[in-house]
Write a structure and sequence with these properties.
By secondary structure, the protein is of the alpha/beta class. It has helices at about 20-35, 50-55, 65-90, 110-125, 150-160, 195-200, 215-225, 240-245; strands at about 5-10, 40-45, 95-100, 125-130, 165-170, 190, 230-235, 255. It has an 8-stranded mixed β-sheet with strand order 3-4-2-1-5-7-8-6, with helices on both faces. Bound molecules: adenosine-5'-diphosphate.
Amino acid sequence: AKRIVIKIGTSSLVYPNGNINLSGIDELSFVLADLNNQGKEVVLVSSGAIGVGMNQLGLTARPATIPEQQAVAALGQATLMNIYSQRLASYSKKAGQVLLTRDVIEYPESRKNVTNTLEQLLKMGIIPIINENDTVSVDELDHLTKFGDNDQLSAIVSQIIQADLLIMLSDINGFYSDNPNTNPQASLHTHIAQITPEIMHQAGGKGSMFGTGGMSSKLKAAKRILDCQSAMVLANGKQPKIIFDILDGQQIGTLFM
Ligand code: ADP
């Protein structure tokens, strides 16, 4: 794979106690830099703005209102980018911040502008770090209607830059026959070629109103990837160096292809 999109979730960037996972961010930055040195084109889609902002403000719970969350995200996004820039700089790499909304693909003009920017960044050897623009779009903030988020965004980005592979890093080893946190009998799917209703069902239905609904969102992203004949790997982001093994062709997590 030459052109790779990597998506990382908040759980890999912020510890459960609310502190920033510096070793995780550093390891991820190292991997991005090294892949770049190998001649690969890498794009990062990173969540974590709210988590980092909460940490800065000493908040232990997510603020209640959307505008408050947007403000916290605006603060956290700047800080998160600063951390990425610093870590990448220690490996002689530069980061470019790209804030998008999912509807970019609905407007050909916007889509073209996004594609041009990303292509140019890659050409210049700058690592694009993408997040949803929380000021403009509240898709990722609105828990009750959370059906589009950075999972979808990473698939959309993969689609518009025709990435060879999307690596989605989560807090779980892959996609299982059932939620392994509640069903210890659940078994890992190593390869999925089609998102059937049966498969969708194993993600715990539509995603509960109050849970993250995380897995069905990842399957929807996988469907988008499969629909355009590309590939996606869902794996655990605890140790970002796992990306090297994935690109080495080792069987890790769940391959959607
Ligand atoms: P992230 O924040 O890393 O993007 P999410 O919380 O959105 O991760 O999604 C991962 C979670 O999805 C898992 O921790 C697990 O609790 C849940 N889940 C539900 N069904 C499944 C399944 N069939 N296989 C794996 N995880 C599942």
